[in-house]
Amino acid sequence: MTIPSDEAHSQLDVEHNNSASEIEQQSSMEIDLENHDDANDAGSADVIDSIEHRVKLVADALFIYDERAWFLAAMFNPEFYAQNYELTDIESTALFQHFLDVGIAEQYSPSPAFDPAYTATKLPDIQTGEDSDSTEDIEEQPIFVRWLSDNFHTVVPHALFDAEFYLDRYSDLAETVKNPYAHFATTGLYENRIPCEFLQKHINSVYTKFDETPASVLSIFSSIPVNYSAQFLRKETQVVLKKIFMPDLYKKQLGIENDYSADVLYSHFLVQGSINQHRPTALFNQAWYLECLDGYKLEDPDTDTLREFKALSAEKIAQLQILGTATPFFHWFFNGMQLKIIPTPLFDTDSYLTAHPDIRNNWKNHPFMHFIETGYTEQFRRHSVMFNANYYRQAIGPLEYNSAILDFTMRGQFDEIAPVGGLQLEHFPASNPYVCSSVEEAAIYFHRRTNKLSNGPVAEMIAKATALEAQVVRPYGPKLVRMAPVFHPESDLMHDMQDIIPDLAHAQYDIIILMPHCRMAGSANVAGQFTKTVSELSDGESILVITTDLSAFERPDWFPENVDVFDLSQHLTSLQQERKIRILLDIVRGLRVKKLVNINSNLGWHLTNTFGKQLAEWMDIYFYLFCWDRDAKGNKGGYPIQWFLPSFNYTKAVFTDNNALRTELQDRYCLTDESRKKIVTLHTPAAETSIDYQTALSQRISNTGVRRVFWSGRFDKQKRIDVLLAIAKRMPEIEFWVWGKRVLNDSDVGMNDAPSNIRLMGTYQSIDDLPIASCDCFLYTSGWDGLPIILIDVASRGIPIVASAVGGVGDLVSEDTGWPIKNYANPDDYCAAINELLGNYTDALERGKRGREHALALCSDDKYRDSLRSAMQLGTDK
Amino acid sequence: MTNNKKLRVDAILTAHGEGAMASVSYNSLLQAVEYAEARGIEVNKTVVLDNADKHTNVIFEGLDNGTRIIETEFGDQGLVRNAAAESSECDLIAFIDGDDLWGENWLYEAHAYLSANDEKTIAHPEFNWFFEGVSSVLIGMDQDDPRFSTDFLRFGNYWDAMCMAYRSAHVSIPYCKRRIKDGFAFEDWHWNCETVWQGFNHKIVEDTIHFKRRRANSQTIEASGTKSLMPSTELTAYSHLKQFKSAA
């Protein structure tokens, strides 16, 4: 493979190639001063920048007439010199003269192959002698002069050149070249000869793994800022560089999928990628760095005027600001950090120090160095108002990369998952997302917008306001930036709603019914009954049923066809509770609802408990209560206990499905007469009034075979299946047919523990699908309850009932209509009742008959409609 | 910006219990007035003291620099602004709250902007700088900016009340009453919704800034803490939106 020489030096290539041999040939030759004088007389404007001419200039300026003059003339690289010292306005032919007149004294470097700082460390200590100049005089000589005058053959002036390696690698030079460094600086550098083991290792790595050619040695040398060749080569530097290198991001920039090791990719970066301006880490943004470098100003111009007391002189600062031939990344690494320039818009020193006392108190270097080396992988670190690692992790789930920033750059930005609340990334498209991600684009945008706060007329306004009120600049620390709707906490809500609203059928509804979901549950059944009745009673009012807590609508048949059903829960799954509440608030407000009914919607309760007062100004609020619950500690809880009061004052009416709960609420809170009236019992209408099992069951009076009891319910703690199993165990001669399934998984007892006389029957759609006529009675063992639908269904069908006398069960089951068990946890009491029932089945059927009559009267459709019409002022009661 | 109309500005400071902070705000007002007057703008100075406490009243006692002092008993910021605008004889109204500051160039730049635009234009600063209790900056959003969305007004407020507008805007659309105990506040946000709904154009005046003091007991913070809502407006209803299934 041939290595092309650098385009920029094509004009001088011939001279470089010649000059190396000429230097060797003229090792003892002196310069022809007559010719030199002629050239000098020709006048600078017409001077041709030839090697010979330069040699004469060296002789004039430095009084050096031998091979060293030829060396200097040949090694001088005008483009390198002009770029690194911002001399591009000087004619290229005058640059060499500039170096002699000014550059040498200013310790400028004439070539990528000369490192003044490194050379200074290698020059021998000055020895005083009778014939030599005084020590002070010599020490004041420029480094280049000292090196060229006395150390040309003994000191190598660049850390990346190894003479032994060079001659060893290039055997063609071993015989002819006496000064390998001089050869390299004048010729080898331009012939792409590799000057040291370090570079060979990295260049070979690229040669063997990649199809492309590494950059030229000249480019590599030029990519390192002047004076930093030694630091570049230092082990500690390489460790840090490797530490901050992000191979995954780098690979994406190269557009390769190969499974290269991090070391290979790092080699590529050093000898190719850096020069092609790929970034090694997501924490270096080249465009941002160059913008900062360009706009660099002293942090405190007032005190910084006295630079002599500062570590960096004004001259040094000016020098550090010059990018020159260095690549932006290496310029930042060696120069930019000295200026405290942060090369990413995603790090704010104030944010980092304010949030982290460990860094503030213990870290000796610049805080950004902590962040770029380790801090960025620590999720708890707060480094910018534009990026919150915790927020991002919550939004995207487990990270696939070792830091949130890298994860966002690699994948989050493509899903438009913002790394901070309220930031709308669609406004910040990234043209090259691996080079500058969308959040970097956003951060740069806001930095630019707020730059006015530190420069120009707005900054003057701030200064004048601060003169009037010194508090204006406080508190110190990071300053939050907001720009609605692009970056504002409420913007997320707006976007949520912009997604949700198109799923609504209409812009306005009169009545909204909130329910958690529609699964096979009594409350969902009630919600269906309620909706149906409201729909029938309403006078053309539009009704919307909203499921808020879970995407399940298993029984659409329970609801009338003329109401819209909207699954809001599907839009809320990943959102915080407060945002869910705000969404529901916007919906009920936006739809200009007149009546809002909550039937067990948890989100609905949150809504009314938070904004009930305001909602009540816009609409009538109603909620439905069924029964309280018991928590894991066995204490009463649930909506009637924990949620009732905050919303009660703002409601028009509260519905219960049984008298027991109504009375309990009225008494517990000592409600006034007016308030007591707000709690209305709506006994759920019996779904079926015509089916009566009395005749069928009468066949069992003479039954001498197996007696059967049936039980139906959730296999949960509330339903006390432990009691059921204990009863079955005590009555082995009776079969217990059991319908139901586990729902909440909160019961310590499972059906695995059931005795053999329990027969699990599965679940059912309709009670009338069950072989009720093959059973003698219904058993209900719930530990707490309202008035369960199953009891209404069973009682209204004339079936004898043994039931725990809890909650609203007493509304249906009394000594007259069945066998209520006061001590609901005592199996023996149930057994006694079942024995009594089976012992006189004729009497049992009588009670069943009275139970049916009572149920049909109590749970009548007409009664329900009348109560509802009155409570909600529907239909004719409006 | 060409100033082609000779419009008079009323610089109105409203105060109630700010005490010594009101003197800072008043000095800010005087600074901005001086800046504007030096550039040929005619400015009236008005201070409205609404149920002001003695620490606030004393600051404005005996002023003889032409400042119009109005005393009211509304106990409500919005109603105070309405009364001040109603009683003003100037073409333009610029409000400043009794604990905040204007950027010195505000009156001049906003006046220049409004002079070149019609009566349905409302001027806001490019930046709102929040200090003392919080450290944040709000970059103003121009209603003609393609990123502006009316939908946002259902959830948040783009602009503070310390705007400059034609007096006619305030007279035709007064502020609503603040009812924090009933759960309603943010009369400035509400006013912005109403003005947007009625076709006003909220514009940003470049290179201008307001300084908003956020005290722990400020009314805004109190309103946020009590979960106050903005009163409903036409903008909070969905009826003006087009993206429903039925519309499709």
Folded structure, characterized:
- The complex is a heterodimer of chains A (878) and B (248).
- Chain A is α/β, with parallel strands linked by helices.
- Chain A is built from 42 helices and 16 strands.
- Chain A has four domains: 9-188, no CATH class; 349-453, no CATH class; 494-681, 3-Layer(aba) Sandwich (Rossmann fold); 694-859, Glycogen Phosphorylase B (Rossmann fold), CATH 3.40.50.
- In chain A, the strands form three sheets. A seven-stranded parallel beta sheet of chain A has the order 4-3-2-5-6-9-10, with helices on both faces. A six-stranded parallel beta sheet of chain A has the order 13-12-11-14-15-16, sandwiched between helices.
- By secondary structure, chain B is of the alpha/beta class.
- Chain B has a single domain, classed as Spore Coat Polysaccharide Biosynthesis Protein SpsA, Chain A (Alpha-Beta Complex).
- Chain B is built from seven helices and nine strands, in the order βαβαβαββαβββααβα.
- Chain B has helices at residues 21-37, 54-60, 77-87, 106-115, 167-172, 187-197, 219-225; strands at residues 9-15, 43-50, 68-72, 92-97, 101-102, 121-132, 136-139, 164-166, 201-214.
- In chain B, strands 1, 2, 3, 4, 5, 6, 7, 8 and 9 form a nine-stranded mixed beta sheet that branches.
- In chain B, helix 2 (54-60) links the parallel strand 2 and strand 3 (68-72).
- Chain B is globular, with a radius of gyration of 18 Å.
- Chain B starts with 8 loop residues before the first strand and ends in a 23-residue tail after the last helix.
- At the A-B interface, helix 28, helix 29, strand 1, helix 30 and helix 32 of A face helix 1, strand 6, strand 7 and strand 9 of B.
Quick structural gist:
With 878 residues, chain A is of the alpha/beta class.
